[in-house]
Design goal:
Length: 230
C-alpha cells in the first residue's frame, strides 16, 4: 500500500508542458496496455473508446480553445457582464500537451458468452452495447465510472515513468449528437466523457497561486465525504 501512496502522491496538476521532454509512443502504448489489464468492466463491455492523439501543437491548442470557449460561454451565461475573462489555469495543460487522450462512449458487440453462445441456464438478458442512443444517453453515468477507473490506472503508469498528467471535463456538446464543435475530429462518434493529457510539466497549477490562495484552495474534510452507517 505504501508504494501506491508514494506513487499517487507524486501527482500535481500540470499547467505548462515541456516541449522537449516528451513521452515516446512506445511509452504511451506501454502505459495504456498495462492500465487496460488492471481494470474490469460490466459484462466485459468496456463501453468506451480512448482516442490517443500524439504530439501536434496546433491541434492541442485547438482542443484547448474548444474547452476554453465552453467554459467562457458557461460563465458568460451565468454571470452576464461579470464573468471572468481570463484563461483558466486548470485548462492550460491542454494547450501545450504533447499527448491528449479523448475518452468517449463506444458501440460494442457482446463477447461469445454474453451473445448467448454459452448455455445460459438462467435465461436471456438484454445487451444494450450495440445501441448508439443507449450508449450516448443512458450509459454515460455508469460509463464514466469505468472511464475513471482506467484513467486513474493510466495516471499511475504516467507517474511511474516520471511524467505528469491532467484532466478536463469542461467540453462543448451541441448539435444533434453533441459533436457540432468537434467537426474537425471525424474519428469521434460521440462527444467526449473526459480529456486526459500526458507529458512532462515544467510548471504546475499550484505555482500560479499565492500562498494565501493555496491555503484557501482546500479540499473538504474526510468526514464530509464518508458516511459510516451502523
Amino acid at each position: 500500500m505504501k508504494q501506491l501512496i508514494d506513487l499517487y502522491n507524486k501527482r500535481k496538476h500540470p499547467s505548462i508542458y515541456d516541449d522537449e521532454n516528451i513521452p515516446t509512443e512506445t511509452e504511451i502504448k506501454d502505459i495504456i496496455s498495462t492500465a487496460y489489464n488492471l481494470v474490469t468492466s460490466f459484462r466485459k463491455m468496456y463501453g468506451y473508446k480512448i482516442h490517443v492523439l500524439g504530439p501536434n501543437k496546433k491541434r492541442s491548442k485547438h482542443i484547448w480553445q474548444l474547452c476554453h470557449n465552453q467554459k467562457q460561454y458557461t460563465d458568460d451565461t451565468h454571470f452576464p457582464g461579470e464573468s471572468r475573462q481570463v484563461k483558466s489555469m486548470g485548462m492550460l495543460h491542454i494547450e501545450t500537451a504533447p499527448w491528449i487522450l479523448i475518452y468517449t462512449p463506444r458501440v460494442c458487440e457482446p463477447n461469445a458468452y454474453h451473445a448467448g453462445e454459452s448455455n445460459h441456464k438462467d435465461g436471456k438478458s438484454v445487451w444494450d452495447g450495440t445501441d448508439w442512443d443507449f450508449m450516448n444517453f443512458n450509459n454515460r453515468e455508469s460509463g464514466a465510472i469505468e472511464v475513471g477507473m482506467i484513467a486513474k490506472m493510466i495516471m499511475a503508469g504516467v507517474l511511474d515513468k516520471g511524467y505528469d498528467t491532467g484532466f478536463c471535463v469542461c467540453m462543448p456538446r451541441s448539435g444533434t449528437k453533441g459533436l457540432e464543435k468537434w467537426k474537425d475530429y471525424p474519428f469521434l462518434d460521440f462527444y467526449p466523457h473526459l480529456i486526459q493529457t500526458i507529458g512532462k510539466a515544467k510548471k504546475y497549477q499550484w505555482e500560479h497561486k499565492t500562498q494565501m490562495e493555496l491555503i484557501k484552495d482546500s479540499k473538504p474534510y474526510v468526514e464530509d465525504i464518508y458516511n459510516f452507517v451502523e
